[in-house]
Each structure stands twice: as structure tokens, then as C-alpha cells.
Design goal:
The chain contains eleven helices and no strands. By secondary structure, the protein is mainly alpha-helical.
Length: about 280
């Protein structure tokens, strides 16, 4: 009996995983919109691009996030939802379509400090290491991602706290979904949390969240940098995927004007090749 109870308790740590949905984040597309003729992006434009891309991606999958929260906070002894699809049907029928986007405005508000914090920290870590970013080792890239995610998540966590409470609260569930404070809206939720738990109550659960977010972003950043090196190595630009040492014969001494001329030349060649293809078809 005790063994079964322990197994049931352990399973509750993973009961929300069925509601996790992975979608491609459109960061690349938004960054391309902010590039100049040389393919460069200023820091503030990169922050705007990252924020907008994160907001779009979060809003697309937001209903699954609401369902995940409901599955986590429900009473396992007397569950209101039997699974992901059952939760989706119940929320839509009893609370309406907008209930699937309850607290979505906090995602928009929280994306700004998260993007600003992560980008500014990550882009200035070369000063911490005392060397340019292209010389970072995989371990340094992993640490950089961890530090950037830790700072960004700490700055934006109050919005995450209030968002989860708004997702969990429901008038059709027993005890209003089991939330520890009751509120009438976003501003009132901030007020009630601070009143009941103090200002630091907005950061309750930060440690557990960092245990998930920090290694996730560390692996993401280090994998991204390593994949860049692999691509450069496969195309013959560097001698090894473990470093950025240039291969013999690779010249990076082109100036801005020469780069513009090269890009214009490539465009003209592409346009002429398209014209010849069309003429051959006719």
C-alpha cells in the first residue's frame, strides 16, 4: 500500500508532461526583418525581435500552458480532468474560449524583462571572461546561457507567478481551483499576493523554476554555438568544430564597402539566373 502511494506521489511530478507542446520559435524570421544591408542587428533591435518572437510563440501555444497548469494543481484524489483533451473540452464548454487565454497579457508583459535581461547579460559576458566571444569554449557557452537565463528568469518571475495563479483559478472548480489567494483580475492578483505573502511572495517557487530553466538555456546556447562551428567546419572555414581557428586560405579582411559590392554581385547573379530559367521555359 505504501509503495503504491509513493509511486502515485512520484508520478504527480510528471503529470503535466502530456500538455507540453513544442513549436518552432520564429526568432530567425523576426531578426531578418531588423537586419541592415550587411546582415548586422543592433542590440536594441535584437531585443525587440526576440521579445516579439517570444510573445508570438507563447501566444500560439498558450492554451496548452493553461491546460498544463490545471492538470498540475488539480486534486489527484478527486481530479476534475481526466487528461489533456478532456481538460480542453471542459474549459471550453464551461468557461468559454477566452478562459484558455486567461493571463496571456502577463506573457506579453513578462517577455520584455526576460528578453532584455537574457540578451544584455549574454552579449556582455565577454567582459566577464576577458576575451572575445568567438573564443569561448563549449563549457563557457554553457555557463553563459545559464547566467543569462538565471538573470532573465529572476527579473520576469513575478509575472510568471501571477500568470499561473490566473490560469489555475476557476469559478467552476472546487475551491476556485485551489489557489492560495482569490482575486478579481491581474492587478488585484498582484495586490493580494503582496498582501498575503509579502513582496517576496511574487518570487515563491523561483528556485524550482531555475532548476529547470537554467540548464535548459545553458544547453540551448552551447548547442547553438557548437552547431555554428560544425557548419563552419563542414564548409571549410575553420580547422575544427571545437574552435574558431580559421582554415588556411580563408580571408576575412573585406571592408564594409567590399561586402556591399559582393552582396550586390550575388543578387545580380541570382536575378540573371532566374531570368535565364524563365526564358528557357518559354
Amino acid at each position: 500500500m505504501e509503495r503504491g502511494r509513493c509511486m502515485s506521489s512520484a508520478w504527480t511530478l510528471y503529470k503535466d508532461q502530456r500538455a507540453v507542446v513544442f513549436v518552432p520559435v520564429p526568432h530567425v524570421r523576426f531578426i531578418q526583418l531588423h537586419m541592415d544591408d550587411l546582415g548586422r542587428v543592433s542590440q536594441w533591435r535584437a531585443i525587440v525581435a526576440g521579445s516579439v518572437a517570444g510573445i508570438v510563440a507563447a501566444l500560439v501555444i498558450y492554451p496548452s500552458d493553461v491546460i498544463k497548469t490545471r492538470l498540475i494543481v488539480q486534486n489527484s484524489l478527486d481530479p476534475a480532468y481526466r487528461g489533456v483533451l478532456h481538460a480542453l473540452r471542459c474549459i471550453y464548454r464551461k468557461e468559454g474560449f477566452l478562459a484558455l487565454y486567461r493571463g496571456a497579457s502577463l506573457t506579453v508583459m513578462g517577455a520584455v524583462p526576460f528578453s532584455c535581461g537574457s540578451f544584455l547579460v549574454y552579449m556582455n559576458l565577454d567582459k566577464l571572461w576577458g576575451e572575445p566571444s568567438f573564443r569561448f569554449t563549449p563549457l563557457q557557452n554553457f555557463i553563459n546561457g545559464c547566467l543569462a537565463a538565471g538573470v532573465a528568469q529572476t527579473l520576469s518571475f513575478p509575472f510568471e507567478t501571477v500568470k499561473r495563479k490566473m490560469q489555475a483559478q476557476s469559478p467552476v472548480l472546487p475551491h476556485c481551483g485551489g489557489v492560495d489567494v482569490h482575486f478579481t483580475g491581474m492587478v488585484d492578483c498582484f495586490r493580494q499576493v503582496v498582501k498575503a505573502q509579502g513582496f517576496l511572495g511574487l518570487w515563491n517557487g523561483l528556485t524550482a523554476n531555475l532548476l529547470k530553466i537554467v540548464p535548459y538555456f545553458g544547453l540551448m546556447f552551447s548547442s547553438f554555438e557548437f552547431c555554428k562551428r560544425v557548419c563552419l567546419y563542414k564548409n571549410g572555414y575553420i580547422v575544427s568544430p571545437l574552435s574558431y581557428q580559421l582554415a588556411p586560405g580563408v580571408d576575412q579582411s573585406l571592408g564594409p564597402q567590399e561586402l556591399r559590392e559582393l552582396r550586390r554581385l550575388l543578387r545580380n547573379r541570382s536575378f540573371k539566373s532566374e531570368q535565364s530559367t524563365v526564358s528557357n521555359r518559354w
